[in-house]
Design goal:
Distance between the termini: 112 Å
CATH architecture of the largest domain: Beta Barrel
Number of domains: 3
Helix content: under 10%
Number of helices: 4
Oligomer: single chain
Number of strands: 28
Structural class: mainly beta
CATH topology of the largest domain: L,D-transpeptidase catalytic domain-like
Length: 403
């Protein structure tokens, strides 16, 4: 009995089995348009992003071998193919108002490959969640948190996780940071320590078109870019009545001060400069004192709480500065020192008060007290890193200047 390996030349022209039949996998794919259907097909209608994308092989003589679906940004849609190759179904939500390219590979009963490529668009979302990043673009101190304000409240933990994963913050130099849910509409982002000096920080959202849950989809968001300057810290010691200002860890000025008297004690803790006002009117009535107690213009005022705590010029108390606490909660100093401080600090710089008999600075309700929360507790406020924060009110403090 002859084998293929022993065939002689005269037999080779008449024997096809030894050379083998054409490989169906090497053939050019035929148009498989008649062999498959998908859920977004027909009549020019748009696919429903609330429903999974489904691809089905028609008849008994064809099956699906591969499916890829990508949006205009190149993001892949994950899915599962049935064991018999008759059905493929997406396992992640489609984006709303997005353009997709669907590529389906098939083979017939003889193993010949087929291919169909289809472009389709999903319908727009009716309910959008917009995100506004803060603060405004610019240069800030190393204590400035990044904020994200949502256009709608979100309380569901799984929906919060979708949002949080899509809100990206990057910095150069790179540092680890985490979002913390202040309440159902506000998030703050900070690293474990202060931002590096002279860093560039960017925030952007990948939420557009993404299904969040309950018929809610991500909307547009304007990206944010800010930078940090030198690391400027003002350590206010209510016990010694001195403020030490450091730049990048090096003391550059020591200032005699006065802080809150008993009953009006200055808050302890880390605060962030919120605003700079060269002149501000302060009255006793604003903090519950009699209408005639005081009413004056105060100069070179750097605000550190929403409720009205400032670092400012207090020429009326120069005799007590460095010796006693006589203010109504603010940090007072001479006019010359206050002007220097005002011109030296920027928004986002750190003002830390120690050795006061006052309450501790709240993390969120009275300005940027974010740094007073331990890192482990901060991470618990993340929907991704573990746990949820309570739905507290972010702006509960009453505005009242204190002198």
């Amino acid at each position: 009995m002859l084998t293929c390996g022993l065939l002689v030349a005269p037999l080779m022209a008449g024997v096809s089995g030894c050379a083998g039949s054409p490989d169906p996998l090497s053939a050019k794919p035929y148009d498989a348009a008649d062999q498959i259907s998908f859920s977004g097909d027909g009549d020019g209608r748009k696919a429903d992003p609330d429903k999974p994308l489904e691809v089905t092989a028609k008849g008994d003589d064809s099956r699906i071998t591969d499916v890829t679906a990508t949006d205009a940004a190149g993001r892949y849609v994950r899915g599962e193919l049935a064991h018999d190759g008759k059905h493929w179904r997406s396992t992640v939500p489609l984006a709303a108002g997005a353009h997709y390219t669907l590529k389906v590979s098939t083979e017939d009963s003889n193993g010949a490959p087929g291919r169909r490529t289809v472009d389709f668009t999903t319908s727009s979302a009716r309910r959008l969640l917009k995100v506004t990043f803060g603060p405004k673009a610019g240069e800030y101190g190393v204590g400035q948190p990044i904020t994200a304000k949502l256009s709608r409240p979100v309380k569901d933990p799984s929906a919060r996780a979708v949002i949080e994963r899509a809100l990206k913050v990057d910095s150069r130099p790179a540092v680890e940071g985490v979002w913390h849910w202040v309440d159902s509409r506000n998030l703050h982002y900070r690293p474990q320590e202060y931002w590096p000096a002279h860093a560039t920080i960017t925030a952007h959202s990948n939420l557009k078109g993404i299904r969040i849950g309950g018929g809610l989809y991500g909307g547009d968001a304007k990206s944010l870019r800010l930078t940090t300057g030198d690391r400027l810290e003002a350590l206010t010691d209510s016990g010694t009545h001195q403020m030490t200002v450091k730049r990048n860890g090096v003391p550059i000025r020591t200032i005699p001060i006065t802080t809150g008297m008993p009953g009006f004690d200055t808050r302890n803790g880390i605060k962030v400069v919120l605003a700079k006002e060269s002149a501000v009117r302060m009255t006793g009535a604003s903090i519950g004192l009699g209408a005639g107690s005081y009413d004056l213009m105060v100069y070179w005022a750097a605000r550190v709480t929403k409720s009205g705590e400032y670092v400012h010029a207090a020429p009326w108390s120069t005799g007590s500065q460095g010796y006693a606490n006589v203010s109504h909660g603010c940090t007072g100093m001479s006019t010359a020192n206050a002007e220097w401080f005002f011109n030296t600090v920027r928004l986002g710089d750190i003002v830390q008060v120690v050795h006061s008999n006052g309450d501790d600075m709240a993390p969120f309700s009275n300005g940027y007290g974010d740094w007073n929360m331990a890192w482990a507790d901060w991470r618990k406020g993340s929907a991704v890193s573990g746990g949820q924060s309570d739905d507290t009110t972010a702006d509960s403090a009453r505005l009242r200047p204190q002198v």
